[in-house]
């Protein structure tokens, strides 16, 4: 599962994103939002990767062509359906300690 960080300077947050293929043509994409000062901290990055952190979580799911998940995940983030907290945690149980943002 890829792990990408991007900075949102408007609200001073860094957004960590990744995805999981639920099937060859279905992707689930997560976003974990954290304070911007945590962007380059290797300990924080390791904690986010392992799921042991106090952050905000959002999860989206959508169908994709299935040609290149590394390209298609961004479309899921823009156009996918936001799932319920129960579904999100079933897909990404390592984020069970995160606050789910509806």
Task: Summarize the structure in words.
The chain is of the alpha+beta class. The chain is 26% helix and 37% strand. The chain has three helices and six strands. It has helices at 42-50, 69-79, 85-91; strands spanning 4-8, 13-23, 26-35, 56-63, 81-82, 99-100. Strands 1, 2, 3, 4, 5 and 6 form a six-stranded mixed sheet that branches. Strand 1 and strand 2 (13-23) form a beta hairpin. It starts with a strand and ends with a strand. The mean pLDDT is 78.
Keywords:
102 residues, globular, six-stranded mixed sheet, alpha+beta, 3 helices, 6 strands
Strand content: 35-45%
Return the structural class.
alpha+beta
Low-confidence stretches: none
Largest sheet: 6 strands, mixed
Mean pLDDT: 78
Tell me the helix content: 25-40%
* DSSP E strands, number: 6
Q: Treating each run of at least 4 consecutive H or I residues as one helix, how many helices? A: 3
Shape: globular
SSE order, one letter for each helix or strand: EEEHEHEHE
How far apart lie the N and C ends?
A: 23 Å
Radius of gyration: 13 Å
Quick recap:
The protein has 102 residues and is an alpha+beta fold. It is 26% helix and 37% strand. It has helices at residues 42-50, 69-79, 85-91; strands spanning 4-8, 13-23, 26-35, 56-63, 81-82, 99-100.
Write the layout of secondary structure elements.
Layout: E1 4-8, E2 13-23, E3 26-35, H1 42-50, E4 56-63, H2 69-79, E5 81-82, H3 85-91, E6 99-100
Parallel strand pairs: 4-6
Antiparallel strand pairs: 1-2, 2-3, 3-4, 4-5
